[in-house]
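Handout, page 2. Input:
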Amino acid sequence: MPRNLIPVSVFLLFFLVLCPFAHATRIKDLADIEGVRDNHLIGYGLVIGLNGTGDDIRRSVFTRQAVINMTKRVGMSLTPDLLRQLRTRNVATVIVTADLPPFARPGSAIDIMVSSIGDASSLSGGTLMMTPLKGPDGITYAVAQGPLAVGGIAFGGRAARVQQNFPTAARVTGGAIVERSVNYALPPSGDLLFQLRETDFTTATRMTDAINGSFGEGTARSIDSRTVHVRKPPTYTGDLVTFIADLERIEIEPDTPARVVLNERTGTIVMGQNVRISTVAVSHGNLNLVISESIEVSQPDPLSDGVTVAAPATTIDLLEDEGNLVVMEMGVNIGEIAKALNAIGATPRDLIAIFQAIKAAGALHGELVIL
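Output:
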């Protein structure tokens, strides 16, 4: 197999195997209950215990101020002379972020992300000091503290440096304790609003029909392409949680739009199974210009006064691959499209140009998204 066809073959195998088969999906994986969501938290803190890889406290004003505030909280006071002599690089200022899950109660542990905001080169080996985490309303909902788990390393000197991943960001599993819960409770009436993660009228209708088929007519109704209103049946009186659990297990087949997503930077192509095209002919050919240089030696005749001279020689070859014309019939599916394009030897980057040309010709029935 030619080398340039290997990425295309992998691409084709993936879609030919997966696309023709449609699978039902749980409502749990398609929609969320309105109001049941995460809440973002943020805090500003200090990481200590770094091995000379922290912020330069002489140049970082906010790091210096944070150290001063921290020493005051633990009962120390720094005089102006001590401040001028401060030279430590074992401290780094960081931003701490977390997601407060729904129904989290005081005492629950949540994960946190720690990211440097100064000129620290690595947070490896550091410990986060007690940091309040606040919501958009300015109220503290959790307090974070603990040793950092850094997934990257960085070593080097003035002339060379080796780095793997990003050592200035870290994660602490269970690094924050919830101090305050968000005031939200499931509606006692049992009326729920489910919001689809992907807006689609067909999927909303299928979800409504599936719920009514399981719990009886009138249990659910579609409000719009994203929202489905669900009413708790009388048989679940006083047990809304069990009703939600049974409802989330219902499986439906979501409808997907006809869409082709192209990423020109990475050569990635993703096509939905509903993509169709009208009858169109596609021709593909490559023009290769090969320039090679070699050194030739010019030798003078015997007993002559000439000198040996090395002269460069340039050879230019123009190679053009045979153009193949492939006709794709109207209404072909994604597997047939991929098979036809593979027949003309198209690479992923060639496919991007081909799909753009098909769309420009008006033969692609679907949305073309270019990232």
